[in-house]
Amino acid sequence: MRTYLECVACFLRQALDASRMATDDPAIHERVLRATLQLAADMPFDRPPPWMGQQIHRLLREATGNPDPYRKIKQDSNDLALSLYPDLHKRVNSSLNPLATAVSLAIAGNVIDFGCLTNLTQDEIRQAMEDALHTSLDTTAVEKLRRRAAAARDILYLADNAGEIVFDRLLIEQLPCARMTLVVRGAPVINDATRTDAEVAGLSALVPVIDNGSDAPGTILESCSASFQARFAQSDLVIAKGQGNYETLSGDHSHTIFLFMAKCPVAAADAGCRVGERVIVHDRPHCSR
Amino acid sequence: MRTYLECVACFLRQALDASRMATDDPAIHERVLRATLQLAADMPFDRPPPWMGQQIHRLLREATGNPDPYRKIKQDSNDLALSLYPDLHKRVNSSLNPLATAVSLAIAGNVIDFGCLTNLTQDEIRQAMEDALHTSLDTTAVEKLRRRAAAARDILYLADNAGEIVFDRLLIEQLPCARMTLVVRGAPVINDATRTDAEVAGLSALVPVIDNGSDAPGTILESCSASFQARFAQSDLVIAKGQGNYETLSGDHSHTIFLFMAKCPVAAADAGCRVGERVIVHDRPHCSR
What we know:
The structure is a homodimer of 289-residue chains. The first copy, chain A, has 289 residues and is α/β, with parallel strands linked by helices. Chain A is 51% helix and 10% strand. In chain A, strands 3-2-1-4-5-6 form a 6-stranded mixed sheet, sandwiched between helices. Residues 285-289 of chain A have low confidence and may be disordered. Chains A, B: Residues 4-279 form the Damage-control phosphatase ARMT1-like metal-binding domain. Chains A, B: It comes from Eiseniibacteriota bacterium. Chains A, B: This is DUF89 family protein.
């Protein structure tokens, strides 16, 4: 997905929100904001929005000297998700269609996105999970996911955020784990999941975990390591979680299923759905509810 | 009022909204947006937000070759306001406190601000005027305005927007017209009132009308003509209508009464009131309801 002109004002809001979250120093807030303006003035709009997210959060880490400003937020999200996990695990397994319930919960977990939703509360996360148990997704799209996963020899599951990755476990447990590899970011960026979060979520014991070698809040292939690029090319099914992975991979890759919650009007319009909607997109950017 | 870091994302939104209102050409939208980013990267944040508004709308007029992109919007606002004027005029004169009613209506007219509220509808304007008839302002602040106007020898009334200027007439009729001069912008910018609008509103027959020689959406004194600057310095009371005049004159001038509707969180916080609130500020930026 390209960067739309509407994204630009949102980049500035994100740069300011992130700076304020990371430090109380107003000189750093201003420095990061001005540097973001300068970058945006010349940015190639054919790049996806997470390209700018990557630049902003590099600036922020450099300006604050803090390599992981969202560490506490990630821990809190993991703790909350782990406290909800046992009950949700039971509810998945006792439901009429465990895969559909797990998909619904995993996508609802994508609400934990501190790039888009700076002021997200723990109550809102709990509510999103509860809502996911009571509203169903398009069963055709879920069944297509089931068939594609059953037929695939080599599945990559691209995780998105900390906390959310615990809810991904509910879905991964319903899929053919023996043929699946979990992929996390190569370095901290916003609240995106890294190896630590996969470990904390209990996923390292379930599937092999690799990282993509990149600090982009999405999957920008040219920013990823050569080994991940090779792994991506050889897999025959990619399950890409989250809006950042949709924004960076949609349109280009025919072996990808996108699972995400649309959190801004631009991504929602691109995917043909409404803001707040949980979507399953098979390969192409269209909305399959 | 200085430019706050929050204003920057809003500048970008305004640049994009204004470009799209002025032309369907996406190349112009992108050109104006990039130029705004470049300007904002280096802007002095001790300048008020309308300083950037002035730059953005110069860029827009230059890029489109249209010296007055809001002409139709201004005409429509004037037409609507003139259609409401006769009834409102009667309601002012039959009210228990005609000055208070006129102040309330004049401030409500400040909703007609296409810089802040791009998608404002005629129904919303009608509703704002109706609301103003049923909710009262702080009577102490109104009585202080009455006393100060009665005591002043030379009153400048700084108009803000087209359409709104018709509602200003309701207030001007309640004030000592013989000692008052109406001031409009020196050139078109957004939907701000110029000499044409004062004429259409029927104000030219009531009070002398001058322009400030500037194309800023506010009153940036150093951008105004020398003759206006002299006139401003010699007056002993300035009644400044609208958020743009508040943003450019507040804090610096002890002989000014600000009447406006707070339309963004930044201006509302600066004035100590809520978004959507109609405020009277005597001289200093504090909220006197």
